[in-house]
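Changelog note: in this version the structure field was regenerated for every chain. One regenerated record is shown below for reference.
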Amino acid sequence: MARGPSSPVFLERRSYRRRRLQDAQRLLPVLGMLLWMVPVLWPTRDETGHVTMSAAIYYVFGVWCLLIGLSFGLWRGLKRKVDEGTEPPAGDP
């Protein structure tokens, strides 16, 4: 079986990092969904039998803030990669 000339697979470092940032950005909603499902596993009644929601509300708000911070950081990383002279991300006109 004849094969063509063997050349190593090489991706430019900038484009590789930009693609990994895009992958992380695509997975962020899935991470958020999984983190927001955690309060469902918590017990919802205290020792008196009343429903407790304050810890879950703080948790959901904290996850929301974390997702905003992560998405902002990923956006800045992608913007910086584009500003350094790499081609714009696919899908942008």
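Spot check on this record: The two ends are 44 Å apart (CA to CA). The mean pLDDT is 78.
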